[in-house]
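user: can you give me the structure for this one chain? tokens are fine.
assistant: on it. calling the predictor now.
[tool input]
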Amino acid sequence: MGKKEPKTLGERIRRVRGDYSQIEFADMVRVKQPMISRYEAGHETPSPRILLRIAQFAGKSIEWLLTGKQAGGGRQISRDELVGQAAKALSKTSNPDAKDFNEMMKDLFKQRERMQRVLSFYKFEKR
């Protein structure tokens, strides 16, 4: 029988940490160990920067980290849903960066769309 899927952000962070101690993992994502403990217990939500570091460490999307849903797997959630989920998760923190997260996510999606258009144009021109 496989491992059950983690249901909360804290459980997903614990899954990502794997066999590393909280101290080792904290060093890798550049936070203090007590914060890792608070994240995993669901008492604190990582800032957008820390969420990005954890997602990059895990080789997972922020979508998975925040919602437990893989991009492209099953029902893909919309960008607005992802931004909403992220904003909801971050609203539970006192981190001042949380207020800017919604706009940052929207900007990232716009940049991604622009890059895809540039790449599509480049591929078209190479024909």
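assistant: here you go. The chain has seven helices and no strands. The first helix runs from residue 9 to 17.
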